[in-house]
């Protein structure tokens, strides 16, 4: 997909470049410009644009229904699902106990294979999130240090980590991780007020990962209906590959991580749905 910005419409407000998770939008003299290389095609630039200046392959993004209050219950459910975003910008306020309880309940009431109800949640809030981010940054810094020299980057390329084989990308990420240790940045959890880690027993639960995925998505939808944003953080899950590292952050040694996601009152406003490729339906 090709993302472009109409310069005559763009007001150069900078909202799209702040929102862009792959940081591939440049604020130039008169209008923002999208660099399609490195772009993950998430459409966030177009969804947050207050003047609808972004085009995908020449087309506008699908608009939200004009009057959300007049939707039927089916349309309202479709809208809730399709407007759920990976939010990376949060208000500082902590979650209220009432909201947090409702979100946890959505997870607890979710289906599990053979109804074993074996998922569990570790919830980090406030300063605990910064401490968790620092622990994970320390692990990741071991890898970005390898990427700082050309031989290390060649290895990254061989390992299929093409994006981190790029000098500029790996150096930028390394710096951000260092700042995380000083409490000045958080490229992992985006300074979210809360982080949830769902776990399942290592042994005897064939569908543990699936069960955590279902519970997590239900929790994030319950959050979204309360204007609480969330974002799955696969990066953190990958970083916590060793049992030693997992137990350091409080995960019992007989449990595995199923899903990690942030929670926080959203500070981003979305006006449209994203552009998504269709599945090739096999009938
Ligand atoms: C399994 C999974 C892992 C993800 N891990 C990360 C992550 O580590 N960091 C991040 O910023 N976003 C992460 N995301 C969010 C995706 O980048 C996001 O879903 C995608 O860009 C589409 O945007 P949307 O969710 O707002 O529609 C993850 C999403 C999924 C499904």
Give descriptors for this structure.
283 residues, alpha+beta, Alpha-Beta Plaits, NADH Oxidase, two-stranded antiparallel ribbon, globular
Would you write up a description of this structure?
Strand 2 (25-27) and strand 3 form a beta hairpin. The model has no long low-confidence stretch (mean pLDDT 94). The protein has 10 helices and 8 strands. 30% of the residues are buried. With 283 residues, the chain is an alpha+beta fold. It has 2 domains: 1-85, 2-Layer Sandwich (Alpha-Beta Plaits); 97-265, NADH Oxidase (3-Layer(aba) Sandwich). Helix 4 packs antiparallel against helix 8 and helix 5 packs antiparallel against helix 7. The strands form 3 sheets. Strands 5-6-8-7 form a 4-stranded antiparallel β-sheet. It has a two-stranded antiparallel ribbon with strand order 1-4. It binds flavin mononucleotide. The site of flavin mononucleotide has 12 residues, from strand 7 and helix 9.
Ligands, deduplicated = flavin mononucleotide
Fraction of residues in helix = 25-40%
Overall morphology: globular
Q: Please give the oligomerization state of what you see.
A: single chain
Number-wise, the strands total 8
Biggest sheet features = 4 strands, antiparallel
In percent terms, what proportion of residues is strand?
A: 5-15%
Quote the CATH topology of the largest domain. NADH Oxidase
Terminal residue distance: 26 Å
**Class from helix and strand fractions:** alpha+beta
CATH architecture of the largest domain: 3-Layer(aba) Sandwich
Unreliable stretches covering 5 or more consecutive residues: none
- Kindly report the name of the CATH homologous superfamily of the largest domain: NADH Oxidase
